[in-house]
């Protein structure tokens, strides 16, 4: 492989060695497609002869029954390796004959890239009446040829066998005819008797004849002659990039896929090289020659584009300076392919140079450990790991391929590019964690092709969820569990034995996103769901529903069977929270219970123990005696089991004593309300004049909930969602002053995820515990900003409730208020 730099056209990367007086076989950078040297016994008829290589069938009849045979000698040509004899006109007639001898033979289809075919011939002196020529066919159709349809000069023939471009070489002379078909440029060129000691098949000299706009594809050659001989027929194709990458290009997270490169042409000592990321190569050295100075190194050979080198000291070097000017922010990976044949290589070092550092300098290098096992390996070095790599454009490096003496290594190539090499060979197994582009090109002796690429998309695994699930389970009653629709292969896992522990009323199959079932026994119950999503990915684990304890039916105050224990009588004969009474007289826990840990105040207008329906006292159910008084005629409604209506004129509530929060810097506020106001109004204030230190307030502001924490400065958050829609809502706010200003306060609307945005101009980083103040509801310290709407319950905690706990309280209350 020759060195190539990015600003040289990559399409012309089939660099060919010069044949300096040595016999030629297949030119470097090309692969042999077919060859016939007529290595048969002298005088042998060639019909049905099957020698040579690469052909797909023997020589067979092409016209009438006169054919060719082997002569007693073969042709030779300086610089060309020849074998066997030659084929010549055979005057023997084996049936119906005229004066034309003809044979044909098939080979793999040639229709892309650059393809050569060549031969040595001595034809009859003048062309005409269909001879002399080699005719090219593709799938049985004549596409072109070489020879002459008239005149006495070797010519390129079109699909009608007419001369389309002629040389000045005599048909009857012994000629080496070299034909180049460039399918990319749609051009056919011909050289007659080139000097093979200087002829470069990749960058050839001016041709003897050119047919532009003509590039015949072929999978068969027919020989038609009336006299003369032909020998050394060769077809070889320029090694070219793969044309396609196959394999699953969409995978699920955690899976792998195998990518395979195919198409194009390859050859001996040529490998497919895979990169993780788009392919962009600034420089590549393939060591078809060794142009660099070395130290403590013996260059043994560069056969087949592989540098075989032996270190003669502990600091062997290849000085690769002045390679160009490369942007280090773009090109940061140096990759090389190596094989330690003998000895222990230890590690390689790359000393990089730039406009300021022009020679290898201590401190400006990156080291890579090597494996010494006589196996081909890839070393990838991320040069940007060195802080000075990006100081200025890279101009080259010193390649210390080992740090030990007596090491013999093969080095196939070294390159600078944008991406690491992740493998070699026709196939690559990958397991990317994120969507990744993989690129592949071909490298070999005088070969460095363009690359093709394939994006492997990594689809995240689904996280199955329950869109609906019961928050109460009554024995032998239908409950519904629902997951996302539009998925496939639903897997419902239900504990127990069907028709013993549970029964299925409907759904629950692999095509159903729901299951309706009855639990037949008491105890805590939960099910699991998993499925396959539209990307054909399955959840890593199944998702469990909430575990709910199966209970009996309750009983109403009228002695009726009721499924909702919230409105069933308890063991004391009262309707409300706490224990309920089943139809069998059992005490049972209400599933609609809220979080009690840290609860320091609970006002509940639906509970007669908190508000009996009349009067001005609203009592605290938390056990902390934070009772208060309703001022100016707050009215009661029995709707939704009971709530209090504030008129927005002068109604409010105030605690009888201070609500003491001085022992905590963390609080949670939850309010169940239905706003009627649209202007800025106060829902709650823990302060005597709004500006009190270590206090807070809850506002309706521009139809949104606003929570304000004030201590010298203000930390204010607004909800994103609006709340003035004349519907019930559970407003929740948590504050943790131990956090920074941005993260101190979180607002939830109903049981949804955090739903708030900070007010940038009011974002003080408050700290310290809250204070002990009166708590006002529906006014600013009883002096204004009166709230208009209905409030059912208020819960205050001296800690931050988690999102799960916020949701649990929401689920405990939603059926009562239609949340």
Number of helices: 1
Main β-sheet description: 9 strands, antiparallel
N- to C-terminal separation? 73 Å
DSSP strand content: over 45%
User: pLDDT average, as an integer?
Assistant: 89
Rg computed from alpha carbons, rounded to a whole number of angstroms: 44 Å
**Helical coverage, percent range:** under 10%
Give me the count of strands. 68
Strand order of the largest sheet: 52-53-56-67-59-60-61-62-65
**Uncertain spans:** 1-24
Shape: elongated
SS-based class: mainly beta
Describe the structure.
This protein has 819 residues and is mainly β. The protein contains 1 helix and 68 strands. The protein starts with a strand and ends with a helix. The relative contact order is 0.08. Residues 1-24 have low confidence and may be disordered.
Keywords summarizing the entry:
819 residues; elongated; disordered N terminus; 1 helix; mainly beta; single chain; 68 strands; nine-stranded antiparallel β-sheet
